[in-house]
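Much of what follows relies on a compact textual record of a protein's fold. Think of the row as the fold of the chain written in a discrete alphabet. An example makes this concrete, so a full record is given next.


***
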Amino acid sequence: MRNIRAILSEALRDIAAREPKAVAVDVTLPDNTDAALDRELEDALRATKNLVLPCQLVGGRWEDPAERFKPIAA
């Protein structure tokens, strides 16, 4: 999963340019990593309309997206 944030940022920018009605991301982003990569990803997420971010059950607890990404989702 190396470089997943950079890859996801690029993919989201490409997808947003095509103006889809909604976009669902199937990558859980529970933690903050490199500040510059997180900022780039946050910008790409904000540019994506009607964004759905996942959460998952891990060890009996829900793992949500990192706090900086949560408010961006629709």
User: Anything to note?
Assistant: The chain is about 35% helix and 15% strand. The beta strands are 23-24, 51-52, 56-58, 61-63.
